[in-house]
Specification:
- The protein has 160 residues and is mainly alpha-helical.
- It has a single domain (2-159), classed as UDP-galactose 4-epimerase, domain 1 (Alpha-Beta Complex), CATH 3.90.25.
- It is 47% helix and 9% strand.
- The chain has helices at 2-16, 25-33, 61-76, 94-105, 129-135, 144-159; strands spanning 40-43, 55-56, 92-93, 111-114, 123-124.
- Strands 3-2-5 form a 3-stranded mixed beta sheet. A two-stranded parallel sheet has the order 1-4.
- Helix 1 (2-16) packs antiparallel against helix 3 (61-76), helix 2 packs parallel to helix 4 and helix 4 packs across helix 6.
């Protein structure tokens, strides 16, 4: 029974996708490419990073869902409650993401450079050693193009 519930939970997460009203860069860039919004704002181009934009550890929705399912299995098998970071341990800049969304979608949407938001750090990446050790978690989609392609496909399906 518990395996059936876990499989159903994973399917539900994969079918749901990202809420496009969120402030997540990839969803917003996909919406700009699909003409759901007129432009994309970049908040901060003066960070101490190679291209001046913030670096973040973007994760594919299926890797995130798998980590959650692995966590449930771990707890059901008697594992202790743990705090685990989920990500890839490295990141991409906002500018890199925007360039890849434009290339993958084939749409050169307008981008507006805005001031930094208060408190935004230059770089945020996950420390993933513990999740790999505790859950033996291994991501399958550690690839920016795969992440963007899936997000773009999801947003296109929502248009139908």
């Amino acid at each position: 029974m518990k395996n059936r519930i876990l499989r159903m939970g994973l399917l539900a997460v994969i079918r749901i996708g990202q809420n496009s009203r969120a402030t997540h860069l990839i969803a917003n860039a996909c919406n700009a490419a699909l003409k759901r919004q007129s432009e994309l704002k970049i908040f901060g181009t003066d960070f101490p990073t190679p291209d001046g934009t913030g670096i973040r550890d973007y994760i594919h929705v299926e890797d995130l869902a798998a980590a959650h399912i692995d966590s449930l299995r771990y707890l059901e098998d008697g594992g202790n409650s743990e705090v685990l970071n989920c990500g890839y341990g490295d990141g991409y800049s906002v500018q890199q993401v925007v360039e890849r969304v434009k290339a993958i979608s084939g749409v050169d949407f307008p981008v507006i450079n805005s001031e930094r938001r208060a408190g935004d750090p230059a770089c945020v990446t996950a420390s993933v050693q513990k999740i790999k050790e505790v859950l033996s978690w291994q991501p399958k989609y550690h690839n920016l193009d795969a992440i963007i392609s899936s997000a773009l496909a999801w947003e296109k399906r929502k248009l139908k």
